[in-house]
Write a structure and sequence with these properties.
The protein is an all-alpha fold. The protein has one domain (5-213, 227-408): Up-down Bundle (Growth Hormone, Chain: A), CATH 1.20.1250.20. The chain contains 18 helices and no strands. The chain has helices spanning 5-11, 27-49, 55-62, 66-82, 84-94, 96-113, 120-146, 155-183, 185-206, 227-230, 232-240, 242-261, 267-275, 281-294, 298-315, 321-344, 357-385, 388-403. α1 (5-11) crosses α8, α2 (27-49) packs antiparallel against α9 (185-206) and α5 (84-94) packs across α7. The longest helix has 29 residues, at 155-183. The two termini are 41 Å apart.
């Protein structure tokens, strides 16, 4: 998923799940810890996308085809989706630092272990657990970065941290594409685990235990059922972009196999093209974040950007290398804008208390990742039964179909004081 700096600055402004430390750090210590966490973010994203270029080799090893490839990429999203909300609650209970570092540690170990999977079933199980590790890192890590700085100085480090996902995803596609011909897919996946494992060990030493710990002192009373979980806007946004989530992940994973088998490109060239389906979202994020903060027509912004991305994906089957590059760049820019708006808009939901914004984001992410897993698996089935061109057209259509849920998105209110979560009624 790509998380824009503007959204994170809004999110980090007050209470990130109760884990923002009151203990100030010296600038050098904060900078060192931030650099390590950015390296973690890059390694984290690397392990999301290094499987895609390996799919044909995995298929040859275990005798499976595109339908099973779709299932392999889907189970990772299942693990990442199901644990989004629980990860937020765990961070509130135990602190952002231990939860996020445990998450990347789990992802690093299982990512490397995938290279030693004795069967396709074992590989599926390991990717599922890797997704769980990704979920434990996701939102707690953003709170951890924010906890290194006082309010008013969090925007740049948090924005840089979020943009690092796109860089890591691009490295995962290109790195795996270069390693597989030389060393095989098994060692390529082991390398992904090492890329994440090394900064994880460094993080235990350089991220101070005085930040991102469990909340201390009395906490505000909470409702039995958080407003963030019952607000219809959260559910509307979550459901509306199930198609987009599935499309972004499926393209990132399948563009390399498609380029090799259909376009006849080398794996290195296909990896370079695949990189362009993720890297330009770094630009789309800040652009979308600024637009979302300046203008309140968020539903229109969602629709225009998503339709543009769907249109790009629909023309992918009809062209060669040049068109594929254009499609990739435009597609990544469009979904970068969508995710930026998505993570800015909760700050305008007066029905959701400010301390529940991370929970709202966790829920909509959970919906999208779980639904995106279904879309990714379905894409693999369509490719196996028909062809890649039919699969790309189906992804484009699913992006538009799920977008219909935006009819339930309430109009965006002007920014104002957030609602306060009151105590449970007697």
């Amino acid at each position: 998923m790509v998380l824009p700096g503007a959204a994170r600055e809004a999110w980090a402004g007050g209470s990130l799940g109760g884990n923002v430390s009151a203990v100030p750090l010296e600038p050098r210590a904060a900078a060192r810890a931030t650099a390590v966490l950015i390296a973690l973010r890059i390694g984290y994203a690397y392990n999301w996308y290094d499987v895609g270029p390996a799919l044909p080799s995995i298929g040859s090893t275990f005798g499976v085809g595109p339908a099973e490839w779709g299932l392999l990429i889907a189970v990772f999203l299942v693990g990442a989706g199901l644990l989004q909300v629980p990860a937020g609650f765990l961070a509130r209970r135990y602190g952002a630092r231990p939860v996020s570092l445990a998450g990347v540690g789990l992802l690093a170990v299982t990512g490397a272990a995938c290279g030693a999977a004795p069967s396709f079933s074992a590989l599926l199980a390991l990717r599922l657990v890797a997704g769980v590790g990704a979920a434990l890192f996701f939102s707690p890590a953003i709170g951890l970065v924010a906890s290194l700085y006082p309010p008013g100085r969090r925007g740049i480090p948090v924005g840089t941290f979020s943009s690092a996902f796109s860089a890591g995803a691009a490295l995962g596609i290109v790195g795996s594409s270069l390693l597989i011909p030389a060393f095989g897919w098994q060692l390529s996946l082991v390398a992904g685990g090492i890329v994440l494992g090394v900064p994880t060990l460094v993080a235990f030493a350089l991220v101070p235990s005085t930040v991102g710990g469990p909340p201390s002192g009395p906490t505000a009373p909470r409702t039995k059922f958080p407003a963030a979980l019952r607000f219809r806007g959260t559910w509307a946004v979550g459901i509306a972009f199930i198609g987009l989530e599935g499309a972004t992940f499926a393209t990132g994973q399948f563009v390399v196999p498609w380029g090799e088998s259909v376009q006849g490109w080398s794996i290195a060239l296909a990896g370079g093209v695949g990189m362009m389906f993720v890297l330009p979202s770094i630009i789309g994020g800040p652009v979308g974040g600024r637009v979302a903060e300046r203008y309140r027509n968020h539903r229109t912004q969602f629709v225009v950007a998503t339709l543009a991305g769907a249109a790009m994906l629909a023309v992918l089957p009809v062209g060669g290398l040049a068109l594929s590059l254009v499609v990739g760049i435009a597609f990544a820019l469009s979904y970068g804008v969508v995710y930026a708006v998505m993570y800015v808009i909760p700050q305008f939901w007066r029905e959701v208390p400010s301390e529940e914004i991370p929970l709202a984001i966790g829920l909509l992410n959970s919906i999208q990742l779980a639904g995106g897993a279904v879309v990714s698996a379905l894409f693999g089935e369509i490719v196996a039964a028909y062809s890649y061109p039919v699969g790309w057209e189906a992804l484009s259509a699913m992006m538009v179909v799920t977008l219909a849920a935006l009819v339930f998105l309430p109009p965006t209110a002007s920014a104002g004081p957030p609602a306060a979560a009151g105590p449970d009624p007697p």
